[in-house]
TrEMBL record:
Keywords: Cell membrane, Coiled coil, Membrane, Transmembrane, Transmembrane helix. Belongs to the CpsC/CapA family. Residues 8-106 form the Polysaccharide chain length determinant N-terminal domain. GO terms for molecular function: protein tyrosine kinase activity. Residues 345-419 form the Tyrosine-protein kinase G-rich domain. PANTHER family: FERRIC ENTEROBACTIN TRANSPORT PROTEIN FEPE, TYROSINE-PROTEIN KINASE. It is found in: Cell membrane. It comes from Crassaminicella thermophila. This is Uncharacterized protein.
């Protein structure tokens, strides 16, 4: 351990001694680097200016929804411009079309700036938690840098607006073509509905017939119940009358005196010549028809007639109920078919109308969107570039610091290399 420490101490001492012996070399190299950096930074390199324009991006679909909120906005993907994020806008700024338009407008070809050069001059950035995009242009001419930044910002908004209008033009053309087809479909369905309404025995008429049959069958059933009750009453009355008739004789025997029949007494007096007083005491036995029997008989006959009439009426009512019930069932079947047919047609009409209205609304929306400045609504210049006052490069002090550090490193390397070369030469000579 002691030998190792001594070896390390000797090695470190030797290194320091080498640096001290070669200090002039190190200082000289460092001074040369510093002087070179000074000359280049202050006299060779042109000053570089930075112009910055700031764009603000927003969602096109959200913007349109706010504008068209009264008409529900654009609901179909076909009628929407693709969703554009801040990063998407940022990547599109370097679009060759935008770059070429900038070159053409500013005549940058005269100063030998190509699309590649222009792209390399552009520095894009976004501000965290915002929808702002920075366009920075660095160039030796501050006026040119400012013009390039502003022109790129302007051409990019025009590019976005043109693309959006192209997209909405395609959507509008599609909507217009589809609108014609949907109008034909709607007219066809409406014609079918009119033909349905012109058919005999429509739904309303069948409904009235069903209601009428229901009222009629209700009345028949009520009359049938009354007839059944009346039949029971008549049957009961007939049974009582027939029972009473069996216990009532059809004739009755009467014992009378001639005084009860003056006319008959006068006849006998004329024939016998007897005194009327004597005749009045004479008793006569007679048979007469029993009026109670006759009354019961008449009542029974009347009850039988009424019962037969009631039974006939009951049977007739039963037949009427059955026939009316069948007619009602058939009418209900016809009504159900009509209702189903009407419901089917009405659904077709409703769907066709809603589809037509939807396409008409979207056609109007895309037509308005096509003619509006969509790009200005979604990407706008919030801070145009102004002519910079001070250059941002070259960074002279930074260049000097780097040159100083680099000179020291090169000087140290040369010092060690020179010492190594000297020692290795002495060693080789001693060995020889």
């Amino acid at each position: 351990m002691e030998q190792q420490a001594q070896y390390d101490e000797i090695s470190l001492r030797e290194l320091i001694e080498i640096l001290l012996r070669q200090r002039k070399l190190i200082i000289g190299v460092t001074l040369i680097c510093l002087i070179g950096a000074f000359v280049i930074s202050f006299f060779v390199l042109d000053p570089v200016y930075e112009a910055k324009a700031v764009l603000m991006a927003s969602s096109m679909n959200n913007k349109l929804r706010q504008q068209e909120e009264g008409v529900k906005g654009l609901l179909d993907v076909m009628a929407q411009y693709p969703e554009m994020s801040v990063e998407t806008y940022k990547e599109q700024i370097n679009n060759p079309h935008v770059l070429q338009q900038t070159i053409d407008e500013l005549n940058l070809e005269k100063i030998n700036i190509t699309r590649r050069d222009l792209k390399n001059m552009i520095e894009l950035g976004t501000i965290k938690d915002t929808n702002l995009i920075n366009i920075k242009i660095k160039y030796t001419d501050k006026k040119v840098a400012t013009d390039i930044a502003n022109t790129i910002a302007k051409k990019f908004t025009e590019f976005v607006s043109k693309n959006a209008q192209t997209q909405y033009a395609k959507s509008s053309d599609f909507m217009k073509q589809q609108l014609v087809l949907e109008k034909k479909n709607l007219d066809s369905v409406l014609l079918e509905y009119k033909e349905y309404l012109s058919q005999p025995k429509g739904k309303e008429e069948l409904q009235k017939e069903v209601d009428s049959k229901l009222e009629l069958i209700t009345r028949y059933k009520t009359d049938l119940v009354n007839a059944q009750i009346e039949e029971k009453k008549l049957s009961a009355a007939l049974s009582v009358a027939e029972k009473a008739l069996t216990s009532t004789p059809d004739k009755i025997t009467l014992i009378k005196t001639l005084s009860d029949d003056p006319y008959f007494a006068q006849i006998i007096k004329d024939k016998t010549g007897k005194d009327a007083v004597e005749l009045y005491t004479v008793q006569i036995t007679t048979e007469e028809i029993n009026q109670a029997y006759i009354t019961l008989k008449t009542q029974i006959d009347r009850l039988k007639i009424e019962l037969a009439k009631t039974v006939s009426e009951k049977n007739n009512l039963k037949n009427l109920v059955e026939s009316t019930q069948k007619e009602l069932e058939q009418l209900q079947v016809d009504l159900a078919e009509k209702q189903h047919e009407e419901q089917t047609i009405m659904q077709k009409v409703e769907v066709a109308q809603k589809t037509y209205d939807a396409f008409l609304e979207k056609y109007e929306e895309t037509r308005i969107a096509k003619s509006s400045a969509i790009g200005d609504a979604t990407i706008s210049i919030v801070s145009p570039a102004v002519v910079p006052l001070e250059p941002v490069g070259p960074k002279k002090m930074l260049n000097m610091a780097i040159a100083g550090v680099l000179g020291i490193m090169i000087g140290v390397f040369l010092a060690f290399f020179k010492e190594y070369w000297k020692n290795s030469a002495v060693t080789n000579k001693g060995v020889s």
